[in-house]
What we know:
By secondary structure, this protein is α/β, with parallel strands linked by helices. It is 42% helix and 19% strand.
Amino acid sequence: MAYVLIVDDDTDFAEAVSTLLKSHGHEAAIETDAEKAVDRIRDRRPDAVILDVMFPENDTAGFDVARAIRRNFGGLPVVLLTAVNNTFPLGFSNKDRDGTWLPVAEFMEKPVDLNRLCEKITSLLDK
């Protein structure tokens, strides 16, 4: 069983992801405040993080959190979820992942198929 932290201000979405992960035998926790995410990880390091990009206080907070996770926790796998391409036509995708600017294991667009998300998490945890 893995421990997965979901960092997303959309509580309905986060609860749905949490419920699905738990049904697959994982433990899940939710953090709705991007600014508290790194401290939450310090308190208890998860096996993986599901991270939204856009938060009410900062449309790009998830990018900052992803970089802070990489700096402070090395290879902790992060799945970045976002509707940023729907809001700002920037065209972010998996091709933009790198070790500095977008240091995530996977990038998925919202709306996301929850079963596909669970498969991605399972795949990352198996590595």
